[in-house]
Amino acid sequence: MLNVDYALLFSVSLILRYGVSLWPYSGEGKPPMHGDYEAQRHWQEITINLPLDQWYNHTQDNDLLYWGLDYPPLTAYHSYLVGQVAHRVNSSFTELHQSRGIESPDHKLFMRLSVIVADLLILFPAIRFFCGSSLSATALLLAIYPGLILIDHGHFQYNGISLGLFVISVAAVIRNCDVLGSIAFCLALNYKQMELYHALPFFFYLLGKCLHQPSFLRKISKLFVIGVSVIGTFVAVWLPFFLAGPYTTLQVVRRIFPVDRGLYEDKVANFWCTIDIIFKLKQNLDTSQIGLLCIAATLLLSLPSNLHVLRYPTPRNFVMSLLNTSLVFFLFSFHVHEKTILLVAIPAILATSVLDKKSAFQRYWLPWFLILTVFSMVPLLVKDGLLLPTIASTVFFCIMYGNLDQMVSTSSSPLNERMSSPLPVEPNSFWIQLLGFSQVVSLCGACLLTLLHEVYPPPARYPYLWPTLICAYSSLHFLLFLLAFHVIQFSSGVTVSISKKKL
Amino acid sequence: MLIAGFLALACVKLLYLPSYKSTDFEVHRNWLAITSSLGVQSWYHEATSQWTLDYPPFFAWFEFALSKVAVHFDPEMLVIKNLGYSSDKTILFQRLSVIVTDFVFAVGAWTCMKNMHNLKSVQARGPSRDAAIYTLLLTNAGLFMVDHIHFQYNGFLFGFLLLSIGAMMQEQYLLGSLWFCVLLNLKHIYMYIAPAYFIFLLRAYCFNNSAFSITRLVKLGSLVILTFVVSFGPFVNQIPQVISRLFPFKRGLCHAYWAPNFWAVYNLVDKALTIIGKKFGGDMIKIPTATDLNGTQASMTGGLVQDIEHIVLPSVPPLATFIITFLFMVPCLIKLWRRPNSVNFMRSLTLCGWSSFLFGWHVHEKAVLIMILPMTLLAVISRKEAKYFLLLAITGHFSLFPLLFPHQELYTKMFLHIAWAFLAVKMLKKVHKCDLLTLAEKIYLLASVIIFIYSEFIHFYLPPHLAKYEFLPLLAYSLYSALGVISTYVRFYKFFLSQ
User: Fold this and answer.
1) HEC profile for chain B?
2) With contacts defined as CB-CB under 8 Å, which chain B residues touch A414?
């Protein structure tokens, strides 16, 4: 029953995660506001000390300007659960008002362990569920991808929960367990509203599957069942807020979708932020025009890949569309954080299960892309004091990636002692060689920029020179990847059917 | 694969930079300061800090070389008076030095892996064997815990041992001896495995084709003497002082944390008999009270380092431990004399180290590595040895847990230990193509979970009159591990003698 390969993978993943968690968290030692870590702790304080109808409202006891809740209810419920445990471990962790800005080794250990527990309960089972009983490249990459580890266990967040639920939903939908998939995705959405980045492909894939049903009755009934499960999940999650009244419910919505925030905060590897270097958007257009521009660009550019899925609803197209749509949203959407790139990285890794492992995607595009996602977050990570773990976990990832075949094939084939195939290997074509060369040059550039960012102080006239350059460099690459991934989606590649995988 | 494996491990080690570090960190910082600030004539006299230089001269030169790099990180760490100095740059430098010098270990492991191909008596062949040797050596959880968290340079030192063994496998006896002599002059505790070298070299090298070769003996002897002369030469005027620093004998039969060896069991039996005797014998047995022991708290189980007074069983002086250790080494040395080949050499070496661990004076639990690392090479040779290796290594690493006592390190050691155990089981199963452990053995290994849960969690929630016995968790670790270490010793010894 115990699958030694997965036990080994997850324990190695835990070693990486716990190692990163020894380093500083966001806002450590930086009063009065600190960072995401303090925000999460504060939500535990709020949810266990105050009644539900005050969680999202600005009241005397709940100052929304100090890390007010801005994620959907499932995050609030999770904070409540963790807060209950925190209270029993050490009540000073969650004293109303008194515990603001609390920092101690015990508290840090507790908070870090809560993220590990979340990964153990949701992310790891999700990986196992997606990949089946024999270890695959997808499982390995999901478990050691540095971006997720650094943000969740370094900076401090609980992306493992929403992304874990997302992975479960993708696995379920691909296996034609559409109800389970819909429920899981709705739960993911109700944990972090950014999962909306993935909503369009789900919608079009499920719709496409419905339309491809043999009879009209089947079409309608499938649509109906999915609709019911979606609505049912939402009602179940939001019920306590519905019961608390329309004002409270609307207040939650207002907190989740703050329409009065700016186009972007800090520097993000986003299209608009990059354009801004040359053409100052904020000065030439007002907020509502910018908002419209974002929505229009995002929806328009998402259409091709999604319509493709609608017309040809296969697992391959679905996963590629998840990748492409989330990348479009990241590049062209409103108020994007650099951490949101994780929402694009995970579908990219999932794509290894639907594309051929000898394809250019897995050999070149994917590792290039994943490393650049980490690179795009370097300014944030350096600010948190996480440069060393970033370098360590990324180099480790590269080495593991380079030896992927050895890691994965040796686990399942007891008789396979031969490392190389007897078939003659074709020499790489010119384009592949060019691709490889560009990849190396680009990654050297990334290393150089990181080095400069660390070592060389920027000139007084451009204090944000390095973060800006890093973001521009990343976003130009992301635009290139957007093109490449679209080409891959639309090309008739080898389709690997994963619906036959054992659960 | 050599570089890739080494680099990948280095990355993981780097992640654990902010971990707990023991007083050994300050020990080495002090030695950096001593060797860089003072002239050679003062190195073994300097006593500002309590952590005086107690390793042989080559290690002092090693620290001297390191200090040349250290000055670029933080010159303040090289000031002797800065006792306990540990700025961020100091920690970075020291940790990096351990990570970088581990390259010697990687090269040693690689050499052994390659040279295994020459051995005729090796059962299992193929890339899975190579991968097992190299990976299990490099990723050894015990080494990780002791070197990169607790802080020591064992990887660097064991690298020389592996290079030596690798050379012996290739019948490059002089080179093997050279590496071993260098090792002895880096850390003299490896003296314990010198008998195996002595017998093997005498039999396999000096008796060239059953004819005793004087020239070879002279060559070997001169090499050894030359090494020692180079090492002790600069200190020729202060040999007595150096010796007194290298061999301090005030410390006690057992270390503060009882290594899981024979004397731990001996102590426990003595204590048990005392308690039984008290119940039945009344006043006939005088038990030393707290004040009798020079005002130090409680008795030997209090966890402090001091001379241990046995009450019922005879007290054990240092000389007795040496004699007993040596006696236990004799059978395997005789066997090695009879059949001198590389594999038997490795087995004797392991057993000599193992005997010194079980019966030696003031053994640290860290010394368990001296059996585990060479045995890794033996694990790919036969199924029985793979089984003994798993039992020894998993139990041995578990016995290191009390070293990393802070709360934060609880999870570190747990994850490292579990991951490596799974890796070892998986890789060896692939090499030998069968299940290696019996049900009883698996149950024994799983019982460690109970010991772990008790010692790390339950003990602290016991009622006060029980919880005050702080030594109980340590005792649990020691005795549980001693059971595995001692029983596997007996079984492996029998196996070797029956070959």
Assistant:
1) CHHHHHHHHHHHHHHCCCCCCCHHHHHHHHHHHHHHHCCHHHCCCCCCCCCCCCCCHHHHHHHHHHHHHHCCCCHHHHCCCCCCCCCHHHHHHHHHHHHHHHHHHHHHHHHHHHHHHHCCCCCCCCHHHHHHHHHHHHCCHHHHHHHHHHHCCHHHHHHHHHHHHHHHHCCCHHHHHHHHHHHHCCCHHHHHHHHHHHHHHHHHHHEECCEECHHHHHHHHHHHHHHHHHHHHHHHHHHHHHHHHHCCCCCCCECCCCCCCHHHHHHHHHHHHHHHHHHHHHHHCCCCCCHHHCCCCCCHHHCCCCCCCCCCCCCCCHHHHHHHHHHHHHHHHHHHHHCCCHHHHHHHHHHHHHHHHHHCCCECHHHHHHHHHHHHHHCCCCHHHHHHHHHHHHHHHHHCHHHCCCHHHHHHHHHHHHHHHHHHHHHHHHHHCCCCCCHHHHHHHHHHHHHHHHHHCHHHHCCHHHHCCCHHHHHHHHHHHHHHHHHHHHHHHHHHHCC
2) 430, 433
Note whether A230 and A173 are within 8 A (CB). no
As a whole number of angstroms, the distance between CA B111 and CA B138 comes to 13
Q: Cβ atoms within 10 A of the Cβ of A352, count? A: 23
Mutation site for B-interface testing, chosen from A22, A119, A124, A374 by largest number of B Cβ within 10 Å: A22
The pLDDT score that the predictor gives to residue B15 is: 96
Chain A residues with CB within 8 Å of chain B CB: 4-5, 7-8, 11-12, 14-16, 18-20, 22-23, 105-106, 109, 113, 116, 388-389, 391-393, 395-396, 399-400, 402-403, 410-411, 414, 417, 419
Q: Give the Cα separation of B112 and B134 in Å (integer).
A: 8
ipTM, two decimals: 0.92
Model confidence, pTM? 0.92
Position A153 scores a pLDDT of 97
DSSP letter for each residue of A287-324:
HHHHHHHHHHHHHHHHHHHHHHHHHS--HHHHHHHHHH
Entry field: residues in chain A? 503
pLDDT at A186: 96
Return the structure tokens found at A406: 């050895």
Q: Are B199 and B336 in contact (CB under 8 A)?
A: yes
What phi-psi label fits residue B171: left (phi over 0), alpha (psi between -120 and 50 degrees) or beta? left
- Whether residue B426 and residue A18 make contact (CB cut-off 8 A), yes or no, is no
Q: How much is the mean pLDDT over chain A? A: 88
Q: What is the pLDDT of residues A381-400, one digit of tens each?
A: 999 999 999 999 999 999 99
CB contact (8 A) between residue A414 and residue B4: no
Owner of token pair 């006060």: B464
- Cβ pair B381, B122 in contact under 8 A: yes
Hey, are the CB atoms on A392 and B18 less than 8 Å from each other? no
What is the reported pLDDT for A389? 96
Measured in whole angstroms, the distance separating CA B197 from the mean position of its chain's CA atoms is 18
Element (H, E) at A217: helix A216-243
